[in-house]
Amino acid sequence: MNVRLRGIGMTSPRTRERMVNRLQELGIRHERVLDAMLNVPRHIFVEEAFASRAYEDMALPIGFGQTISQPYTVARMTELLVEAGPLRRVLEVGTGSGYQTAVLARLVGTVYSVERIQALQERAIRSLADLKLGNVRLKHGDGSLGWRECGPFDGVIVTAAPIRLPDALLDQLNPGGVLVAPVGAGREQMLQRIVRTDSGFAAQSVEPAVFVPLLPGTA
Ligand code: SAH
After folding, report:
1. Which residues are marked as active site?
2. Four-residue CA torsion sign, 100, 108, 144, 131
3. Do 95 and 115 form a contact (C-beta atoms < 8 A)?
4. Which residues catalyse the reaction (predicted)?
5. CATH number of the domain within which 88 lies
6. What is the pLDDT of residues 68-89, one digit of tens each?
7. In a domain, 84, yes or no
C-alpha cells in the first residue's frame, strides 16, 4: 500500500476516524456505512498532490474536469441507498475515482459501475485492484443507458447529475429497488431517492446537491 510512502500522518487510521466523527456530526447514522467509510482508504483514489487532504470533507479534482465526491455526499447517498435493507446487485453510474464503488462494495452483493471517460475508468481499475475487492465489475460506457445485461438491479446510484432521470435507469430497477441521484441543471440540483413500487415510482426530494453533469456518450 501507499500508506508508508506518503507518510503515516496524513493517511493514518486516526485521520480517517476524525473524518468519520465529522460524518456523524453531520447526521450520518447508519453503522455499516460509517464502518465502510472508516475502512476504505480515500487517499488511494485522489491524485498524489491532494493525498494530504484526502480525509477532509471536501470534493477534490481527479482530472478531466471531474471530482471525487465529498465524503459526506458519498456517505449520505450510500445511506439513502442501503437503509431499506440488503441489496444484491447495485448499478453505479459515474465510477470516477472508484471511491464510491469501493464503499458500496463493502455493503452490497455486487457493484456494477459504468464510467464514460476511458482514462478515468482505467485508473479506477488500478485503484480498486489495490483493495482486492472480489465483487466489483467496471465498464467503460454511457451509464445513462444503464447496464442491461447485468440488470435488473436492487439499487442504482448516479454520481453525476442528469437534468431529468434517464428512463433506462428506472427500467432497470427491480420492484422494491431504490435509486439515488442528484437531478437538475447547474446549481439547481436536488438529491432524489426513488423507490420502485408495484404500480410505479415513489420519489422523495432529500436535499440540495452539487454534482458534475451526467453527459451523453463516451470519451
Ligand atoms: N463517484 C465518483 C464521482 C465522480 S464525478 C467518485 O467519488 O469519484 C462523476 C463521474 O461521472 C465523472 O467521472 C464523469 O465522467 C462520470 N459521468 C458523467 N456522465 C456519465 C455517463 N453518462 N456515464 C458514465 N459516467 C458518467
Report:
1. 69
2. positive
3. yes
4. 69
5. 3.40.50.150
6. 999 999 999 999 999 999 999 9
7. yes
Q: What is the pTM of this model?
A: 0.95
Report the nearest atom of ligand 1 relative to the CA of 216: 22
Query: What's the number of domains the chain is made of?
Result: 1
Say what percent of the chain tops pLDDT 90.
90
Report residues whose beta carbon is within 6 angstroms of any ligand 1 atom.
Answer: 66-69, 93-94, 96-97, 99-100, 114-117, 120, 142-144, 159-160, 212, 214-215
Query: Residue 139 has which C-alpha cell?
Result: 465498464
Range of the domain at 111: 70-209
Nearest CA to ligand 1 atom 26: 94
Residue appearing with cell numbers 444503464 = 146
Could you tell me if residue 161 is inside a domain?
A: yes
Query: Would you say residue 79 lies in a domain?
Result: yes
Span 101-111, pLDDT tens digits? 999 999 999 99
- Rounded-to-integer distance, Cα 20 and Cα 156, Å: 24
